[in-house]
Design brief:
Blueprint: E1 2-6, H1 11-21, E2 29-33, H2 43-55, E3 59-61, H3 68-75, H4 85-101, E4 106-109, H5 117-126, E5 131-132, H6 134-137, H7 142-152, H8 178-187, H9 189-202, H10 212-224, H11 231-239
Parallel strand pairs: 1-2, 1-4, 2-3, 4-5
Helix pairs in contact: 1-7, 3-4, 8-9
């Protein structure tokens, strides 16, 4: 019997792996990881290796090989919360590929935390293979997982947690939060630029009423001039064709 942990690089999956080691022999546990080049933050690899060494279990990687931006180009579309093809192609299909290769019974373990009840319920409705939710069942929140990993295990958390709730791809096109994209613009400017280029390549924008390029100009003006132009104010200016030339500059 094998025990396959969906090892994503987040604190939830790290804790799930630990909880599974408390019940089963390490030789029967698989840390299954799907890489997303130029999507996953680089510090995720350091964190994964630290957790792997702490648990004494190697990482099993099964990946598509393409970058996030390759998949966007090949699908001629931007992923979103409604069409998350990036997750399907780079995560779900890779997992299924591995599951089909396993020749003995197995159970899958996910890292959903206690506050993610809706995600757990949704996963239970859709699951077609034996799946358990050890972190959720242990009633451990994401905050508690972070504290245990940092303070008891002595492992530095992925740097993405300084800015975001989850250690997902940067950027995560499933996010519709302007504040999320402001953080990407400020702390991961190279990734923001890749997203701008993706919009220009595909010919569609992530937000309905403005492009990421325009949004960057608003972020830049607010930061440079300590102004507080809101998204709604900017959209009103744009809708009325009012002149606001100093909002725009070449590049971002």
């Amino acid at each position: 019997m094998k025990h396959i942990v969906q090892f994503s690089g987040g604190v939830g999956s790290a804790m799930a792996a630990y909880l599974v080691t408390q019940q089963y022999p390490k030789e029967d546990i698989i840390l299954l990881y799907h890489d997303v080049p130029d999507g996953q933050d680089d510090d995720t690899y350091r964190f994964n290796e630290d957790v792997s060494k702490f648990l004494g279990i190697p990482i099993t990687e099964v990946s598509d090989g393409r970058t996030l931006w390759d998949v966007i180009r090949d699908n001629k579309s931007l992923p979103s919360i409604f069409i998350p093809f990036c997750t399907r192609v780079l995560k779900l299909e890779q997992g299924e590929k591995y599951y089909l290769s396993v020749k003995e019974p197995f159970t899958i373990y996910t890292g959903y935390c206690f506050e993610e009840k809706k995600r757990v319920e949704k996963a239970k409705e859709k699951m077609t293979r034996p799946t358990e939710f050890p972190v959720y069942e242990a009633r451990l929140t994401s905050k508690q997982c972070k504290q245990i990993i940092a303070n008891e295990w002595g492992i530095k958390l992925p740097r993405a947690y300084k800015y975001f709730e989850h250690n997902n791809c940067i950027p995560c096109f499933k996010s519709t939060s302007y504040e999320y994209w402001r953080k990407v613009y400020e702390y991961f400017p190279e990734r923001y630029q890749l997203a701008v280029k993706a919009e220009q390549l595909i010919g569609h924008t992530h937000f309905k009423q403005l492009s990421l390029f325009e949004l960057a100009q608003l972020f830049k003006k607010n930061k440079t001039y300590n102004s507080k132009i809101t998204i709604s104010q900017y959209l009103k200016i744009k809708h009325n064709n009012e002149i606001y030339s100093d909002l725009f500059e070449e590049g971002i």
